[in-house]
Amino acid sequence: MSVPWCHLFYRFDRRVHPLPLGPPARAPTTIGHDEGVDALDRLIPLEGAFNFRDLGGYPAAGGRVTRWGALFRSDTLHELSPSDVSTLRALGLATVIDLRTPRELEQTGRGPLEPEPIRYRHLSVIRQEADGQVAGEAMAAPDGDDLSERYLWYLEVGAPALAEALTILGEPASYPLVFHCAAGKDRTGVLAALVLDLLGVAPEVIVDDYLITAERMELILGRYRSDPAFEARMAKVPPSRFSVQTSTMERFLDGLHRRFGGAGAWASAAGVPPASIGRMRDILLELPG
Q1: Which of 29, 33, 247, 253 keeps 20 to 30 A from 146, CA to CA?
Q2: Which structural domains are found in the chain, ordered by start?
Q3: Is 0.90 surpassed by the pTM of this model?
């Protein structure tokens, strides 16, 4: 598989192993809709995953920034190349959180990271029966194609999985850590938004982080189209489901705060120990250097 063009420009300056971790050579200092988020600072150069990126360098609460090299988000990891595995070894990757459904995991497997000494947690946001239907005790998915409402549905149907993921993020031994789903857009986007909101990152910055996936979707969809099983499923999904829109994350964040009181209140109600949130903030926030 050829390396995507943007990977050629990535400066791999963030070879990190033990915490604490320092900022890269080109950490952005101002982020927002006017300036945008430099995707090339964040994307890790992988051949078999197109949306693996660092969540470091974002302005957060108390004048701090999110730590580089500790927390990553990604699309599915089952097609990693041997070179990709070497890259992730160099990152010191310690934990993978897989948000995909059991059916998705069964279809593709874990991929070449399975034999690696990396902690793996499968935390399916959407509970499914053997036939792929949402589990009967779970509330039904929202009608229509409104992705923001689907994301808010994840907070209810996927509360146990998302809460456990946040609890794991409060364990220092979990880092460096990556969480992923299939495209790294929806379920991954919701968990990323929860984490960044808990860290005090501004809503417009969370939206900008979400929008980076728009630049990766053609590569991700190309992978789907090359797999007959995925291509058949894609034909049944509304095209809007593959979109990456500013308004989607804006409405999700608005609903998160209006309906649930923000990520902190949601996490508390979902059973995430306050100590876990405190430790997560200690691990993932630092003063700008």
Answers
A1: 33
A2: 16-286 (3.90.190.10)
A3: no
